[in-house]
RNA sequence: GCGCGCUUAGCUCAGUGGUAGAGCAUUGCCUUCACACGGCAAGGGUCGCAGGUUCGAACCCUGCAGCGCGCACCA
């Protein structure tokens, strides 16, 4: 049987044309550039939905779109190498592969970058210099010029993306998807506009979602200041001892004291129950020291500080909630019972509604940019918030209010992007109630969609359980514009006729504050969602028009509708990226691409965007495709430096991947980073690993060269009769490697896969098999030599394929350079190794054909032990390599599995650089100048006249003897223990028995050796 | 505060009940006709600590400590 024939698709042909010798050194830069271009030219990465069939299943993966302004980081290298490995292996498994690439417009980040650049270049001083359209035009210009950098960098890495399908989250088609989705959610009532407390970035001047805020530990100062308790008319409230009652309040933000509207205590706090309903005099601003009511709220923790909380509803989320609670309770109480008397009546029952007093409206004392405004008072107005803080403390000190200040550690929310503390700020924004939450939560919980490692499923579930509405509007210019136009109208406002008619038609049966669909253009399929929102006074209200249709939009922007203004906000970047898996495939059309490749197979991303992106994509998938967007999510680790710190620009600890590629090659970088990326762990990056990858490639190259030096073509099939023990051994080891690598990849254990490849190729193939084969290759038996070369060719061919997903470039170069492609079908490796079938282990029939038994491995394993032990001993004894000893071998009679052949003897002789190798004569008695090496294969006697230090040898053997003695005693004692033998499984018992036998034999041998020394 | 992860050789990490492993680093020898980006060998660990279960624990259980991360947060 001939390997190439028995499974044509699965095995390379063994005969190949003579190839010129490979270059002595491998030059990756040329090779990588050349092959990547060739792959592009040959359209190797392009996916064709038409090719998908039952026999050729689809495999798809969408790239996590990097920021269009981005440059390649090690994080990208990790992430995209993994995707490339998955994609390339899928191709080799005969799948139709789509790896869909693209970039993200990255709203705030991109606008920041471009604005900064323009300011640096002196083009503008402020964005208003250009205005909205001007700036957006500049950003587009900039994007066209610099936007593709990261894409080119990904190509350098070898990424096999289908570049013909590259997408951008802000291109026209994509924008249409976003609009459509917005209007759809708006129509469903899931998107609403409202005045809420939001996270405000005073640097970027925009609202942020909760996910864009990171908590940071902060060294702050806690200021304690005192206030006087007074009645509502200002008269002091006295304590029992007759002294004025004062409260001490702690705060880290004295600059917002002018925004305080109440003082809160816990209703259960007995210290203060008598004070509820009284007032305090607010110390700041000095010129306007208003009286603030003391109110009760359960939120106050009376074990914290003095148990007295100042309430600043315009600048603190929790305080704003207190305000809302009290407003709600007070107004209901007011309405129902005591509308007349707005005054406060204290009762003993603290839960009685009459314990609530009205609060002032929130006082916003800050401009959006973090500078204090006039409401903060003349002393603070115009000051930047941190300077104002210091000043406020000084003011408190000046008026004798400040009691103490002490260092205090607290957590503060920072804007993730601008890296400045955020402000909680009351503002009008767009919010989204998440859609398809139930299905999305269930699909992960029930295992239909798998997270790897699965502990992230818990994190996901937790987040999905406590979903807060998503603030989707941003006050920047670069992004998808909110497709809503609105205007205030009154009862007498004259509206465009179509609109008026639509409203009237609806008004007949409907009521206010409703959303309904109509068509302004009258064109079928083009609609606008109309909504009315009442104003507080009922005299005027807002009409809003939302549409995703260009035709409708044109009408709204026509002169007739001129008083309708488009909402100035743009949408959160993630509001576009959550559509990525289907918006990139032609949605909302039912394209052949969607049909073939959606849902995608795998998603590879970092756990840091599990909420930002992964969770939201799942919800979007269900909402608009009615199906999950991907079946598996692989979460990579975070790359850290040797000290365990995150890679960051500010620390300067992030190596440039392109420099690494330049000095070590892309293959080396890929291999290095995969080797150090265990599943579920953060990655400690060390350039050493890349160096190791480079060394590995060199080794691969030289192993290939070695093969070529043995002669070009082999016309021989592998002959079962001529297989040596080493041939069988390496074929078995290859089987194991194929199985291990395949399993590891199926389980996303990339570092395990690389470890196996490394071990197999370096330790097993190069260090043992090639060395062991040299005896044959340098010998005179041409038939045997040819057979060995045939085995080598088979192993190398399989190895290159196993390596291809990890090392795409060098494997392709060698695949062609050695002629493996020569007579493979075009689509199975003839054109590129990337389409060569993924190796399969030899099956039972094939093993039987070659007469290979699983036990055959043990033969060589024993020989390895013998050779290693001998080398070790010669080395320990300082025997020079030039010595070339004569070897006398006594096979271990109890190891009958080993059938020794002359090939084995020749091999061992070569490997030990010996003069001769003979079977030890049974009647031979060891002499004192002979050392002996023990192994399970047998005993090797080495006469070393004059080279043996008898004393040292005696000491050495003595040590080993002691060790053998103690091991034997241990195992004997164990086996004599009734408790052990009666409870242990047979297998373990056998192992111990075997161990006992082995140690006993070894002990006997050692004693013999000791005796021989005299 | 709640949750998750980690702790094994100098470093980075494998090892889910049966004789403690790999790579790197270190040391020694070898410029042997694929490779010094190489070969051969050596040294190096009471598996974070304390209990428990078991004939037997790096591994299972409990507690503790340290490090990291996520969520929630008190002014």
List keywords for this structure.
Isoleucyl-tRNA Synthetase, domain 2; seven-stranded mixed β-sheet; 1014 residues; 16% strand; elongated; alpha+beta; RNA-binding; Isoleucyl-tRNA Synthetase, Domain 1; single chain
Can you tell me about this structure?
By secondary structure, this protein is α+β, with helices and mostly antiparallel strands. Among the domains are: 3-19 and 659-854, Orthogonal Bundle (Isoleucyl-tRNA Synthetase, Domain 1); 216-420, Valyl/Leucyl/Isoleucyl-tRNA synthetase, editing domain (Isoleucyl-tRNA Synthetase, domain 2), CATH 3.90.740; 487-563; 857-1013, Valyl-tRNA synthetase, C-terminal domain (Helix Hairpins, Orthogonal Bundle), CATH 1.10.287.380. It contains 30 helices and 31 strands. Strands 7, 8, 9, 10, 11, 12 and 13 form a seven-stranded mixed β-sheet that branches. It has a five-stranded antiparallel β-sheet with strand order 19-20-21-18-22, sandwiched between helices. Strand 24, helix 17 (610-625) and strand 25 (630-635) form a beta-alpha-beta unit. Residues 1-18 and 333-355 have low confidence and may be disordered. The structure holds one RNA strand of 75 nucleotides.
């Amino acid at each position: 049987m001939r390997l190439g024939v028995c499974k044509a698709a699965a095995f390379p042909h063994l005969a190949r044309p003579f190839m010129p010798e490979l270059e002595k050194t491998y030059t990756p830069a040329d090779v990588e550039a050349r092959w990547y271009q060739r792959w592009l030219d040959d359209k190797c990465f392009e996916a064709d939905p038409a090719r998908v069939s039952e026999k050729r299943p689809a495999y798809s993966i969408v790239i996590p779109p990097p920021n269009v302004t981005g440059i390649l980081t090690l994080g990208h290298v990790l992430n995209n190498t993994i995707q490339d490995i998955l994609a390339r292996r899928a191709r080799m498994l005969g799948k139709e592969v789509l790896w869909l690439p693209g970039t993200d417009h990255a709203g705030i980040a991109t606008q920041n970058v471009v604005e900064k650049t323009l300011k640096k270049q002196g083009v503008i001083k402020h964005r208003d210099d250009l205005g909205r359209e001007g700036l957006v035009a500049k950003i587009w210009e900039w994007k066209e010029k610099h936007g593709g950098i990261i894409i080119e960098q990904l190509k350098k890495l070898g990424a096999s993306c289908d570049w013909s399908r590259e997408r951008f989250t802000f291109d026209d088609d994509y924008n249409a998807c976003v609009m459509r989705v917005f209007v759809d959610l708006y129509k469903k009532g899931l998107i609403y506009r409202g005045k809420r407390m939001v996270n405000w970035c005073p640097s970027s001047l925009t609202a942020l979602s909760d996910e864009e805020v990171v908590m940071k530990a902060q060294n702050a100062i806690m200021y304690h200041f005192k206030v006087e308790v007074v009645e509502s008319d200002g008269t002091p409230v006295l304590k029992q001892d007759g002294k004025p009652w004062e409260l001490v309040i702690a705060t880290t933000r004295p600059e917002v004291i002018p925004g305080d509207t109440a003082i809160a205590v816990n209703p259960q706090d007995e210290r203060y129950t008598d004070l509820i309903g009284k007032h305090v005099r607010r110390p700041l601003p000095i010129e306007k020291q208003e009286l603030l009511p003391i109110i009760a709220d359960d939120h106050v923790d009376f074990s914290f500080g003095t148990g007295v909380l100042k309430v600043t509803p315009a600048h603190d989320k929790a305080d704003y909630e207190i305000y809302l609670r009290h407003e709600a309770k007070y107004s209901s109480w007011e309405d129902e019972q005591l509308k007349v008397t707005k005054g406060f009546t204290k009762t003993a029952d603290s839960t009685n509604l009459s314990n609530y007093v009205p609060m002032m409206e929130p006082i916003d004392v800050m401009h959006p940019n973090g500078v204090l405004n006039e409401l903060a008072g003349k002393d603070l107005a115009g000051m930047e918030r941190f300077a104002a803080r210091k000043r406020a403390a000084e003011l408190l000190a000046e008026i004798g209010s400040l009691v103490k200040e002490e260092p205090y550690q607290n957590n503060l929310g920072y804007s993730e992007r601008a890296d400045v503390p955020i402000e909680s700020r009351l503002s009008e924004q767009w919010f989204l109630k998440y859609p398809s939450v139930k299905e999305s939560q269930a699909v992960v919980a029930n295992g239909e969609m798998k997270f790897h490692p699965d502990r992230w499923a818990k994190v996901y579930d937790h987040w999905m359980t406590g979903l807060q509405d998503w603030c989707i509007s941003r006050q920047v210019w670069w992004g998808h514009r909110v497709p809503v136009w609105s205007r205030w109208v009154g009862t007498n406002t004259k509206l465009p006729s179509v609109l008026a008619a639509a409203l009237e038609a609806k008004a007949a049966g409907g009521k206010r504050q409703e959303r309904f669909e109509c068509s302004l253009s009258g064109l079928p399929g083009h609609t606008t969602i109309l909504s009315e929102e009442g104003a507080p006074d009922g005299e005027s209200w807002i009409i809003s028009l939302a549409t995703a249709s260009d035709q409708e939009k044109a009408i709204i922007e026509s002169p007739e509708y001129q008083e309708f203004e488009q909402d100035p906000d743009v949408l959160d970047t993630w509001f576009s990226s959550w559509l990525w898996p289907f918006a990139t495939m032609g949605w909302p059309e039912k394209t052949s691409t969607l049909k073939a490749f959606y849902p995608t197979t795998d998603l590879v991303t970092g756990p840091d965007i599990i909420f930002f992106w992964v969770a939201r994509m799942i919800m979007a998938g269900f909402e608009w495709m009615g199906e999950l967007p991907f079946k598996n999510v692989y979460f990579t680790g975070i790359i850290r430096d040797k000290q365990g710190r995150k890679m960051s620009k500010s620390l300067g600890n992030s190596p440039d991947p392109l420099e690494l590629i330049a000095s070590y090659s892309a293959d080396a970088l890929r291999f290095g980073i995969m080797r150090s990326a265990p599943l579920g762990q953060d990655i400690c990056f060390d350039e050493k690993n890349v160096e190791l990858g480079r060394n590995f490639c060199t080794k691969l190259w030289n192993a290939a060269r070695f093969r070529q030096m043995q002669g070009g073509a082999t016309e021989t099939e592998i002959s079962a009769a001529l297989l040596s023990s080493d041939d069988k051994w390496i074929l078995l080891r290859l089987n194991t490697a194929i199985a291990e690598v395949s399993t590891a990849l199926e389980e996303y254990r990339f570092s395990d896969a690389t470890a196996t490849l490394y071990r197999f190729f370096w330790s097993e193939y190069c260090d043992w098999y090639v060395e062991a084969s040299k005896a044959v290759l340098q010998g005179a038996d041409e038939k045997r030599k040819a057979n060995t070369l045939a085995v080598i060719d088979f192993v190398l061919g399989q190895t290159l394929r196993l390596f291809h997903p990890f090392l795409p470039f060098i494997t392709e170069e060698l695949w062609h350079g050695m002629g493996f492609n020569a007579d493979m079908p075009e689509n199975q490796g003839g054109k590129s190794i990337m389409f060569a079938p993924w190796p399969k282990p030899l099956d039972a029939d094939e093993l039987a054909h070659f007469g290979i038994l699983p036990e055959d491995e043990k033969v060589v394993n024993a020989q390895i032990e013998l050779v290693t032990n001998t080398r070790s001993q010669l080395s320990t004894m300082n025997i020079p390599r030039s010595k070339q000893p004569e070897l006398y071998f006594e096979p271990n009679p109890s190891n009958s599995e080993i059938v020794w052949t002359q090939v084995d003897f020749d091999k061992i002789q070569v490997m030990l650089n010996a003069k001769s190798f003979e079977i030890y004569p049974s009647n031979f008695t060891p002499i004192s100048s002979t050392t002996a090496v023990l192994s399970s294969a047998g005993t090797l006697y080495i006469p070393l006249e004059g080279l043996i230090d008898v004393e040292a040898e005696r000491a050495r053997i003595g040590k080993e003897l002691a060790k053998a003695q103690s091991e034997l005693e241990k195992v004997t004692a164990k086996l004599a223990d009734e408790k052990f033998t009666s409870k242990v499984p047979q297998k373990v018992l056998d192992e111990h028995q075997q161990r006992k036998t082995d140690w006993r034999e070894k002990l006997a041998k050692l004693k013999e050796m000791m005796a021989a020394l005299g």
